[in-house]
Specification:
By secondary structure, the protein is mainly beta. 11% of the residues lie in helices and 42% in strands. The protein has a single domain (4-81), classed as SH3 type barrels. The protein has a four-stranded antiparallel β-sheet, with helices on one face. It has a three-stranded antiparallel β-sheet with strand order 3-4-5, with helices on one face. It has one helix at 4-13, and strands at 22-27, 35-39, 43-46, 50-55, 58-63, 67-72, 75-79. The termini are far apart.
Length: 90
């Protein structure tokens, strides 16, 4: 099974994909349903241990183990086994 990090790297670097069409759903304690999401255009960097998201004039580091789903064009291309449905986070 491909890891979320490896899939994000592929979607970012492979010219057949448009990274702006990616949406990453992740655990965010305190957010509605403890979930948030970020579009590809919000992701500034894919580090070895986390991704950097730019939102509200700040950078937030999200470790890959908090990712629950990756969507491309609205369809799920990766989902953590046992996680809640990705569509629940807008």
């Amino acid at each position: 099974m491909r890891t979320s990090h490896r899939l994000l790297l592929r979607l970012f670097f492979d010219p057949q994909f448009d990274f702006d069409r990616v949406r990453v759903v992740y655990v965010n304690r305190g957010a509605p349903a403890d979930r948030s999401s970020a579009t590809g255009s919000m992701i500034r960097r894919l580090d070895a241990d986390y991704m950097e998201i730019a939102a509200d004039d700040r950078i937030t580091c999200i470790p890959y183990h908090r990712i629950t789903a990756i969507l491309y064009d609205g369809g799920i291309v990766w989902e953590r086994p046992g996680s809640t449905r990705a569509e629940e986070s807008g």
